[in-house]
Amino acid sequence: MRTMRRLSLILITTAALAAPAPMVGAATHVPAAPTTPTLVGIRAAHHPGYDRIVFDFVGGLPASRKVTYVPTLVGDASGRPVRIAGRAILQVRFYAANAHDDSGVATAPARIAFPLPNIMTAVRSGDFEAVTSYGIGLAVKQPFKVFTLTGPDRVVIDIDAAFTTVNRTVYFFNARNFKTGQGPYFMPVLRPVLPLTPATGVMDRLFAGPTPAESAVGLRLLRSQATGFTGLSINSGIARVRLLGRCSSGGSTASIAGEIGPTLHQFSTVDYVKIYDPAGTTEMPTGPVDSIPVCLEP
């Protein structure tokens, strides 16, 4: 009996020694789930000799940053052309990076305009499978450099803009005034353009759209389904321009003609403006009179 008690004590002692000691005041560490950098803003400004555009991120910087000139901006998922204004397109592709939150809500603008000498606009062309891409519409194809900064995390692109510009007027649709029935329905804003091709410059700036500050006071680009323009010419006092994409007033008395007309009439060499539809037709192609295509009639 004394031998059995001694054996039991030995077994209990051995079990106690084998059990791990409790950790007093210790917390279990669970590694945080990896996060994908998220684009949360786009901003731009002019500096002596160059324009700078900044892509702001939270959650770190994208590991891959590819920046290159492209002839056409193409949607990453759709493979279709994405409308963008400018004489040159600089495409920026970030991986891995999102431009939306966990609920699918966009965290950065789909398109934004800038009144800078070279940078006109930035337009999103993809936010798919952790690849976010944008096109930057420029007045002139110029050299650029790319680098990153932290605190906050951001990708910076400096694009040369060491050239002379002049300010000219672009007219945008005033949606607030139109809604209340109190004119004017088209309002002027200033944009920098190249002095040798100011008519092309103001048309590019028109299709780039209003800046965020201008949008905040009700200005809009009334496209009438047009995606751009081509064939701009000024001869014998007549400016002619053809719309690209589609053309429809949607039954409204206001159309893109109300923007194009005064935007081109500002030039002393322009007495009349003739706007053509994508098929190349307008109501009055000849004669001393302004003309719009049938598709822009109410």
State the main characteristics.
2 domains, five-stranded antiparallel sheet, four-stranded antiparallel sheet, 5 helices, disordered N terminus
Describe the protein in words:
This protein folds into two domains: 38-160, Immunoglobulin-like; 166-296, no CATH class. It contains five helices and 15 strands. It has helices at residues 2-18, 175-180, 198-208, 212-216, 257-265, and strands spanning 38-47, 50-58, 64-70, 88-95, 111-113, 119-128, 131-138, 144-149, 153-160, 166-174, 186-193, 219-220, 226-235, 238-245, 272-276. The strands form four sheets. The chain has a five-stranded antiparallel sheet with strand order 3-4-7-6-5, covered by helices on one side. A four-stranded antiparallel sheet has the order 1-2-9-8, with no helix packed on it. Strands 11-10-12 form a three-stranded antiparallel sheet. It is globular. The model is unreliable at 1-34 (pLDDT under 50).
Condensed summary:
The chain folds into two domains: 123 residues, Immunoglobulin-like; 131 residues, no CATH class. The protein has five helices and 15 strands. It has a five-stranded antiparallel β-sheet, with helices on one face. The chain has a four-stranded antiparallel β-sheet with strand order 1-2-9-8, with no helix packed on it.
